[in-house]
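Re: weekly structure request thread

Next one in the queue (427 aa):
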Amino acid sequence: MNKLSIPNCLGSVAVASCMLLAGANALASDDANLSKLGAFKSTGTGAGEAIAQGGAFADNVRQILETIELPDGFKIELFALAPDARHMAVGRNKGTVWIGTRKTKVWAATDRDLDNVADTVEEFSPSVRFDIPNGVCYSPDGFLFVAERNRILMFPAAEFFMESPDTVAIPIVAQGDLIPPEEESYNHTARVCAIGPDNNLYVSLGQPFNVSPLEKQELYDRVGIGGMLRMGRDGSNREVIATGIRNSVGHAFNPADGTLWFTDNQVDGMGDETPPGELNKISEDGMWYGHPHYGGGEVRTNEYANEEIPADKLARYVPPQVETIAHAADLGMMFYTGDMFPDKYKGAIFSAQHGSWNAVVPRGARVMVTFLDEEGNAKEMIPFAEGWLQSNGVYSGRPVDVQQYVDGSILVSDDKVGAVYRISYEE
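Done, posted below.
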């Protein structure tokens, strides 16, 4: 928009008009850029932001890491500084880690000299206007997917276009088509994604309420809000495969049997110690996981305490594999398949507890490990890395996601500090 086209933005009505016009222009600009990127044409966008990796801030973060408690033989180190670091996707050829945020940027952290520390952290694909690009996932054949508030983008050959501001970007679910636009919210909008063993894309959709109202249930169950979606990697054949999920911000496939597991954040405002958080397992399509009738576990919500649970939902109800402590905010998770850690960790789940925002007694802010039994069910969940919750109740960090790095170590993101840590093992 040139100077001559800018309207007079004095007065409340004019301000609102200006905001709508600015938003429309931004969307039009983004659509134009995506069209060019899909046709391998330059957008003229300059280089994106780069984050310095040294200095006093990095030194202070390393001091925080000295307080983290781990099992014998493990150590934790700073891998990268990345503001607002959320969910991660690990490449396989260049030591690159894509890091989503709940703001407007995706970071690419690259270990260029292969010393297991990122040398550069740069804004990924700055010619794209991202909207809460929290969920990033990477396919074995080199496709990066970014799940936003209401769009999903695919970046073919992401590792090999990342040195330029222009990166091939294809919206496989167009802006406004992931959920009905009138259901867009600023709450529970951090999507996550994963590529399944069937080569389909799986995306969870948190619902925007603390407890979703009865009049929303038919719509939400139909479109997958408060549920899990499966679709082709081109966005085709979209299906809702699970419902009754309040706000899952972490899921992963068990490579041993192909089952999909997910964490779920449960209802707030019912007290410090209730209801429990959840770690769940999807063994078959069409099952129901309790919300909004259950607040977590089998604790009934206040809003639905007198509502009879429909018989068809009760028949499909799946209780959690693990009930976690209330309000710890269980988020990102992964199954360990590497060779670096001791054998007992092979096939175990590593997951992040972000920490409570409203509990009077703080909790969480740690990495958990869950061991499975011979039948592939959860046997025990215990703390693996903790110490980000200080004795005075202040969080020195808030873990968000856990992913396996190329050498068999694991990476932990922290959106409070704005960093990614690497946990390794040596006998």
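The first helix runs from residue 12 to 38. The chain is about 15% helix and 30% strand.
Next request, please.
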